[in-house]
Each structure stands twice: as structure tokens, then as C-alpha cells.
Design goal:
- With 702 residues, this protein is α/β, with parallel strands linked by helices.
- The protein has three domains: 3-265, 2-enoyl-CoA Hydratase, Chain A, domain 1; 298-474, Rossmann fold, CATH 3.40.50.720; 482-699, Orthogonal Bundle (N-(1-d-carboxylethyl)-l-norvaline Dehydrogenase, domain 2), CATH 1.10.1040.
- 49% of the residues lie in helices and 12% in strands.
- Strands 12-11-10-13-14-15-16-17 form an eight-stranded mixed beta sheet, sandwiched between helices.
- β10, α13 and β11 (321-325) form a beta-alpha-beta unit.
- The structure holds (2S,3S)-3-hydroxy-2-methylbutanoyl-COA.
- (2S,3S)-3-hydroxy-2-methylbutanoyl-COA (T1G) binds at residues 28-29, 31, 67-72, 83, 104, 106-108, 111, 130-131, 134, 136, 138-140, 142, 280.
- Residues 28-29, 31, 67-72, 83, 104, 106-108, 111, 130-131, 134, 136, 138-140, 142, 280 line the site of (2S,3S)-3-hydroxy-2-methylbutanoyl-COA (T1G).
């Protein structure tokens, strides 16, 4: 038991007439630790044994209903009572048991709700079974009860995606008996519990699986399995739910338990649990303890292009007042339309009522007039990636914005120290690098410049979180954390092109490793012109001996900027990406011009070279203090670059592969490529001392 668990009663049992009110109180999210499960089980036994109780309500103190099993316990031995036993006891109760749900009833919390005979939700509450995101499946009956309460294909979608189900949607599906105000929640739950005494109790386990269209279910199952890209938990969830169509509840429960236990001990689940805590560590920044963020209610965005409009839409959806400025009136029109579509998606998902979305959109101010930003508390510039343009704009903003405003640049690479100094208000300036498309990508790099005030950084962190982002704080260097490491990975893949591979082979190898997309498909999607501009900017400073591959430059010179131009590394016909003989010939010409005799490059070699390039550069980024901890790099690569989450991230995976092997591969890259691929000193040090990236805290010198 933790100290906190010893201090307060974790579960209270109070009498309210004939109602037993069972309240779980285990901050911060009422996770079902062993101590909580034990206390809950004994309270529920008391409810059954005490003739004075005719019914019960299970509720939670604090900010949310049970958010699931205690993730920290998954590395420990199993201990009874298991949550599945508690859920079975709740459902089997002869006395009505109703849950009063507020906040996020997730995982085991949702399973308790599914086992109950009635469910009353507070407005704004959500239900969810996100276990697949931890490399697991629901292990307390969720895969067997949910398809007996809603259409099986909907249950499949919810469980394989881990999506949250908003209260209003839960009521529409019949999962919630009522959605009420927070103030009415307990009373309504008690009233329902009493009312159920005179009705037959609905038990999910006794209900038939609702599947109106087996073909549709099979199609949903196939789609989910295809989306898995090697993640075992999704395939297991599909199996457990498909099993409900023909097996008994008891048999299905047994199979669910088997699959859950297999996954609980799996490397993939350990990697995903590492990532869960890494995402929460990412926002922990030295020197910010006790620093209060500045108040932000109005956000200004300069630039209504792809990034600016997406950022503005995300801020609107997060219920900020938003003012977007662009000199081009048609761009403003497109920006407003993009914001409307973003809000529409929020409404379609049930997260935002239509009338609220309309009201939010009506507050959007889109104007050519920069002085509209004078009232903004936080201004984000998202204009074209040109240093002088951004410097001039920030200087103007420094004069227009109010003294307490934070000024953020959305630059992907540029020197935020220089931009901050040039604008004359360096303490108010940070970088806030969003990833395209900004309304959906979770990663945001918060660039702490040399003079950024602590409260400006704290304000940026809070804003990023309110936008639903995972902020990673980075220091200034070319490309910051993600783009700097990704640039070395892309360089190594272009070397593999020259050695003998083709873009489609390299992309296939990296997608087989679990990447959402290979590097050349990514380049075509984001546009080759951005990296081209960076290469041209850095050309003067490029080391004379650096191995340079000019294929991408020739593609750009031919106007082949990627998908948006209809051609890049691939040809695009009817929206489909196809290998292009033009590119094959261009690559072969380049190899010949460098006197390279092309050879087959295996999938395994491509993957090892990619991993070595990423890990070696990541070690340099860590050693230079650009990133605060190895897990920040894991988070950045998973949420910004499509690294397979079930591998935990590049540095988590490097520790499992073995840093000695990584160092050998890095030395091989250096021998082949020369400048830029020198083995990282930190990597050498870790190998010499028999340590891994996980031992990073030991290496921190006071
Ligand atoms: N176990 C342990 N700690 C947890 C936790 C959990 N389930 N959820 C959150 N925390 C900690 C978190 O590490 C942080 O700690 C603090 O709570 C606040 O979290 C049997 C097997 C609920 C939506 O996957 O999605 O049930 O940093 O910063 O942004 O079938 O936490 O303060 O020390 O995220 O307001 C399934 C995971 C488990 C839900 C709140 N449940 N949690 O978000 O706060 S498996 C989940 C979340 C399971 C059953 C299966 C979010 C949240 P610290 P936070 P937030």
C-alpha cells in the first residue's frame, strides 16, 4: 500500500435510507489498485449481507469516476480480488446496483459500469475501453458485456480504437440510462437504484449479442486488424469480441482472460505502458515548479495557411477566443472554413454539441488588421518558414501585443534565440512547433529559448495541454529535437537509395517495422519543398566532405514537390501513390554518377541503418541538452513521426536491442558516410559502462 492509500479510507460505505452509497476515493483518478479492489470487494459484500440495504450506488470522489486498473501494478504479480470477480459480483447482485459516473470512466471503470444494472452519467462524462493503447484488452468482462449492450460492430470499434464515448452518445446507444447535471448525479442514481427494485434487473451477461449484420461486423473486424500494423492487442481484441458471436458468455470470459494475461506480460504492453508514463513526464520541466502560467483566454494566430488555420481551429475547439490575421482575404476565408470543419468533426464525434460549435465559430475574428491582436493573451505566428519574414513579423507583434502576451513562433527549424532577440521582447518569446495537421497531431515541441521567461514556458505548456497536445520542451538547435533526428534518418535512407534500394523498398521496410508511413511517402505528403528550402539554407555551411545525395533537389527542380504537385518520390494517379520509373532512373543515374555499383539492400539492413541513424543522433541531442530525457525523444517520435507506439519509441527499443549492437551499426554508418555520422559520445559512454538510456538519470551530473 502507498502512503496515501494508508491515510484515507479508499472506499466509503454510507447509508442513505435503503440505499448503500459506495464511494471510491483514491486520488488522482480513482485507479483500481489492489488496496482499492480489496476495500471495494468487502464493501460490496457488506451491501449484500446487510438487510437494511435494498440497493446500492457506486460513485467516486474527486475529479473522475474510476479511470481504470492501476497501470503501475501491471509489472507486479497478480493479486486477488481480480477486477473481473468484482464485476461478476456486481452483476450477480440481487440488489440493484447503479453507477454514478462523472469524468472519465475508462478501462476497469467502464467495466464496473457495464456490470452494473443502471448507469447515470453526468454531463460531459465519457465511457471508454482504451486498454489496446496499453497493449492490453479489457480484462474484466468488457469484451463480453459491451457487445451484449450495444451493436457488436460498435463495440468492436470502441474497443479496438480505445476511443472515448461521450455521455450523450452513450445515452443514444442505450449505455446510459440518463445524462444529468453534476449536481443531480447522485440523487438521480439513487432514484434509479430504488426504481430498479420493482423492475427485472438487466444483466449484460444474460443478454444476447446484438449483431444485426455479420458481414458488416466482419468488415469492421478486418479494418481494425489492418489498422493494427503489428500491434497484438488490437488483433486480440478482435478475437475476443468476435468470439462473443458464437461462444457462451462464460467461454468468452475465459478466452478474454487468457488473452488479457498473455498481453499483460508482453513486450508490446510494457513498451506502451512506458509510453503512457513518458507522455506525462514530457511536460515536467526543470525550473517551473511553482511558476504560474499567465492567464490566456484570447489567442491570436498570424497566418491563415495550412498550419495557421489548423492551429486556429484547434484553439477554437478548445474554447479559446480566437483572432486569425492574414493579409490575404481569400486565405482568411479558407481559414474560417477550415475552422468550421474542425468544429464539425468535434460535433460529429459527440464531443461538442452543434449549438456550441456554432456559437464558437461565431466568435472567430478573421481579419487583415494586425491591431486585432492587441487584446490577445497568446499570439502564434505561423507564416512561411523564412527567417527574415518571421523576424520582421515578431518585431511588429512585440509592439502590437499587450505586455503580458506570450509570443510563439511555429517555426520547424529556425533559431528561436535570434528571433526572440530581434523582436525586443525575448522573455515573452517561445517556439511552439505544431505538426501537420495541427488539429490532430498530438505532438507539440515547446522551444525554450535562451531568454524565455519561466512563466512564458509554463503558459505555452498549459495552452498545449488545453489543445490536447503532448508538449515536449526542447532547447534551440537546427531542427530542435524531432526534425534534427528525422533529418539524419532521412539522410541515411537517401544513402540506402544510392547504394541500391528504391523509395518503395525503403518505405516498405520502415512500414514493416511499424511506421505509419515510410520516409519517402512522408516527404511526398508534407511536401519536398520545405526540406529543399532548408538544404539550400544550410548549403553554405555544409561540410565539404559530407556525403550529399542530390536526388531530392533534382525532383524539386523538376517541380516534383510531392503529393500536392501530383509527383514527388512517387507518381500520384487518382490519389493513388505509385512507384515511378522516372524516379528509379534518376536514382540509378545518381548512383552511377558517384561510381556506386548498386546492390540489393535487404529490409533488415534498411531497418538497422534507420535505427542506428535515429539512435545515434538522439544520443547527441540528449548529450547537448536539447531534450531533457530519453523518453521525451520516444514521445516525440511516436506522436510526431509515426514511430510504432508498441515499440515504446526509438530509445526504449534501443535498450532492448542492446546499445552495443546499436553502437556497432553506428560505427558502420560512420565508416560508410563520414561527416555527421560520428558515433555519439553518450552512446559510447553508455556501452562502456554497460548502461542503457533508461539509466539516464544516473548519468545526470549535479
Ligand atoms: N493507473 C495509474 N495511474 C494513472 C492512471 C491509471 N489507470 N491513469 C492516470 N494515472 C495517473 C497519471 O500517471 C498521472 O500521474 C495522474 O494519474 C493524472 O493523469 C482491468 C486492464 C484518466 C483521461 O488507460 O487516460 O483498466 O503524473 O496526467 O490528463 O480491463 O490519465 O500525476 O503522477 O493523464 O486529466 C485503462 C489512463 C487501464 C486510462 C486523465 N485506463 N489514464 O487525464 O491526467 S487498464 C486507462 C488516462 C484497465 C481493465 C484494464 C488519463 C485520464 P502523475 P493525467 P489527465
Amino acid at each position: 500500500m502507498t502512503a496515501a492509500e494508508e491515510r484515507e479510507p479508499l472506499v466509503r460505505l454510507e447509508r442513505d435510507g435503503a440505499i448503500a452509497l459506495v464511494t471510491i476515493d483514491h486520488p488522482p483518478v480513482n485507479a483500481l489498485s489492489h488496496a482499492v479492489r480489496s476495500a471495494l470487494a468487502s464493501m460490496l459484500q457488506e451491501v449484500q449481507a446487510n438487510g437494511g440495504f435494498a440497493a446500492a450506488v457506486i460513485a467516486c470522489a474527486g475529479r473522475t469516476f474510476v479511470a481504470g486498473a492501476d497501470i503501475r501494478e501491471f509489472d507486479q504479480p497478480l493479486r486477488t480480488p481480480h477486477l473481473s470477480e468484482i464485476c461478476d459480483a456486481i452483476e450477480a447482485s440481487a440488489k440493484p446496483i447503479v453507477v454514478a459516473v462523472h469524468g472519465t470512466a475508462l478501462g476497469g471503470g467502464c467495466e464496473i459500469a457495464l456490470a452494473a444494472h443502471g448507469r447515470v452519467l453526468a454531463e460531459g462524462a465519457v465511457l471508454g475501453l482504451p486498454e489496446v493503447k496499453l497493449g492490453l484488452i479489457p480484462g474484466a468482462g468488457g469484451t463480453q458485456r459491451l457487445p451484449r449492450l450495444i451493436e457488436a460492430h460498435l463495440a468492436l470499434d470502441l474497443i479496438t480504437s480505445g476511443r472515448h464515448l461521450p455521455a450523450v452518445r452513450a445515452r443514444e446507444l442505450g449505455l446510459a440510462d440518463d445524462v444529468v447535471s453534476a449536481a443531480d448525479l447522485l440523487n438521480k442514481a439513487k432514484a434509479l437504484a430504488l426504481a430498479l427494485r420493482s423492475r427485472g434487473l438487466r444483466r449484460a451477461s444474460a443478454s444476447p449479442v446484438t449483431v444485426s449484420d455479420r458481414g458488416g461486423f466482419a468488415a469492421s473486424a478486418a479494418k481494425a486488424a489492418a489498422r493494427a500494423r503489428g500491434q497484438m492487442s488490437i488483433a486480440a481484441a478482435v478475437e475476443a469480441i468476435a468470439g462473443t458471436l458464437d461462444a457462451s458468455f462464460e467461454d468468452g470470459l475465459r478466452r478474454e482472460r487468457e488473452l488479457f494475461l498473455q498481453l499483460r506480460g508482453s513486450d508490446q504492453s510494457k513498451a506502451l505502458r512506458h509510453l503512457f508514463f513518458a507522455e506525462r513526464d514530457a511536460g515536467r520541466v526543470e525550473g517551473l515548479r511553482g511558476v504560474a502560467p499567465r492567464a490566456v483566454s484570447t489567442v491570436g494566430v498570424v497566418g491563415a495557411g495550412t498550419m495557421g488555420a489548423g492551429i486556429a481551429g484547434a484553439c477554437l475547439a478548445a474554447k479559446f477566443q480566437v483572432r486569425i490575421v492574414d493579409l490575404d482575404t481569400s486565405a482568411l476565408g479558407r481559414g474560417r472554413e477550415r475552422a468550421r470543419r474542425i468544429l464539425e468533426r468535434e460535433t460529429a464525434s459527440g464531443r461538442l454539441p452543434p449549438e456550441e460549435a456554432a456559437a464558437l465559430l461565431s466568435t472567430l475574428v478573421a481579419t487583415n488588421d494586425m491591431t486585432a491582436l492587441s487584446k490577445a493573451d497568446f499570439v502564434i505566428e505561423a507564416v512561411f518558414e523564412d527567417y527574415d519574414l518571421k523576424a520582421g513579423l515578431l518585431a511588429r507583434l512585440a509592439k502590437i501585443a499587450k505586455p503580458s502576451a506570450v509570443l510563439a513562433t511555429n517555426t520547424s527549424y529556425l533559431d528561436v534565440n535570434g528571433l526572440a532577440a530581434a523582436c525586443g521582447r525575448p522573455r515573452d518569446v517561445i517556439g511552439l512547433h505544431f505538426f501537420a495537421p495541427p488539429e490532430t497531431m498530438k505532438l507539440a515541441e515547446l522551444v525554450r529559448a535562451r531568454d524565455s521567461a519561466p512563466d512564458a514556458v509554463a503558459t505555452g505548456l498549459q495552452l498545449a495541454r488545453r489543445l490536447g497536445k503532448i508538449p515536449v520542451v526542447v532547447e534551440v538547435c537546427d531542427g530542435f529535437l524531432g526534425n534534427r533526428i528525422f533529418a539524419m534518418y532521412r539522410r541515411e535512407m537517401e544513402y540506402a537509395l544510392e547504394d541500391g534500394a528504391l523509395p518503395e523498398e525503403i518505405d516498405a521496410a520502415m512500414e514493416a517495422h511499424g511506421f505509419a508511413m515510410g520516409p519517402f511517402a512522408v516527404a511526398d505528403l508534407s511536401g519536398l519543398d520545405i526540406a529543399w528550402a532548408r538544404r539550400k539554407r544550410l548549403a553554405a555551411t555544409r561540410a565539404p566532405g559530407e556525403r550529399y545525395v542530390g536526388v531530392a533537389d533534382e525532383l524539386c527542380e523538376a517541380g516534383r514537390f510531392g503529393r500536392k504537385a501530383g509527383a514527388g518520390w512517387y507518381a500520384y494517379r487518382n490519389g493513388q501513390r505509385e512507384p515511378d520509373p522516372f524516379v528509379t532512373a534518376l536514382v540509378e543515374k545518381h548512383s552511377a554518377s558517384r561510381g556506386i555499383v548498386r546492390r540489393p539492400v535487404s529490409m533488415e539492413e534498411i531497418q538497422r541503418r534507420a535505427r542506428a541513424a535515429i539512435v545515434n543522433e538522439a544520443a547527441k541531442v540528449l548529450a547537448e541538452g536539447i531534450a531533457a530525457r530519453p523518453s521525451d525523444i520516444d514521445v516525440a517520435f511516436v506522436h510526431g513521426y509515426g514511430y510504432p507506439s508498441w515499440r515504446g519509441g526509438p530509445l526504449y527499443e534501443a535498450d532492448r536491442v542492446g546499445l552495443d549492437r546499436l553502437l556497432e551499426d553506428a560505427e558502420r554508418l560512420h565508416a560508410a558516410n563520414g561527416i555527421g555520422f560520428e558515433p555519439a559520445g553518450l552512446l559510447v559512454e553508455l556501452v562502456d559502462e554497460g548502461l542503457g538510456f533508461a539509466d539516464w538519470p544516473k548519468l545526470q551530473r549535479p
